[in-house]
Design goal:
This protein is of the alpha/beta class. The protein is built from 6 helices and 7 strands. Strands 3-4-5 form a 3-stranded parallel β-sheet, with no helix packed on it. Strands 1-2 form a two-stranded parallel ribbon. A two-stranded parallel sheet has the order 6-7.
Length: about 200
């Protein structure tokens, strides 16, 4: 995403607890935990962006405790409060997850949730928070990517691709198994088109 934004002549900062794996982007990185309200507020306020992409999240499927995914809702709450204090921000794109609904479930509306993991539940909490909080200056949209693969990807399905690359075979037995994946450049292309579109405050 950062690479695409730079290519499109945007000025960018990357707020993250983890350093970018792309050494060419190191100068854009600001080491900040989204759960640290004061540090996050200062960095965003100083930069005064027009657009915010919210991708910060714990994305593994390893825990059965909702509190292990507090970043997904507490961090979002911090961000929304800060966004509402910065008039320059006109558009916010929130990255949620397809796992707000279990695999195979077909929701009837955009608020018909059916998660079957604590990660999915945390993303439902995130979405409900976004929808219930007034955005004073900015329009917003929630997107729900599938599992993304490509350069530098890690959680939660990297081990599956590592097995394929090592010519290993996984026998899942007689159970059916459906997994969906999106290539990162396709997802970024779709995301870049959202920047060109008009987004209202109720997407």
């Amino acid at each position: 995403l950062i690479e695409q934004l730079i290519n499109d002549n945007y000025e960018v900062i990357n707020i993250d607890i983890a350093e970018s794996p792309d050494s060419d982007q190191g100068h854009l990185w600001k080491k900040i935990d989204i759960n640290n309200y004061e540090d996050l507020k200062k960095e965003i306020s100083d930069f005064a962006p027009d657009i915010v992409f919210h991708l910060a999240a714990k994305t593994d499927l390893n825990s059965n405790l909702i509190d292990d995914y507090y970043t997904n809702y507490t961090g979002t709450e911090n961000l929304i409060e800060i966004i509402n204090q910065i008039p320059s921000i006109k558009k916010v794109i929130y990255f949620s997850s397809m796992l707000v609904c279990r695999t195979g479930y077909m929701p009837s509306t955009d608020i018909d949730y059916c998660p079957n993991t604590k990660y999915g539940e945390s993303k439902v909490m995130m979405e409900r928070l976004i929808r219930s909080t007034r955005h004073i200056h900015s329009a917003w949209i929630i997107v729900r990517p599938t599992s993304i693969w490509g350069p530098w990807f890690k959680e939660p399905y990297r081990n599956f691709f590592d097995m394929l690359l090592n010519n290993k075979y996984l026998d899942i037995g007689s159970k059916s198994c459906t997994k969906t994946y999106g290539y990162v450049q396709n997802v970024i292309f779709q995301t870049s088109k959202l920047l060109e579109s008009n987004i209202s405050n109720n997407q």
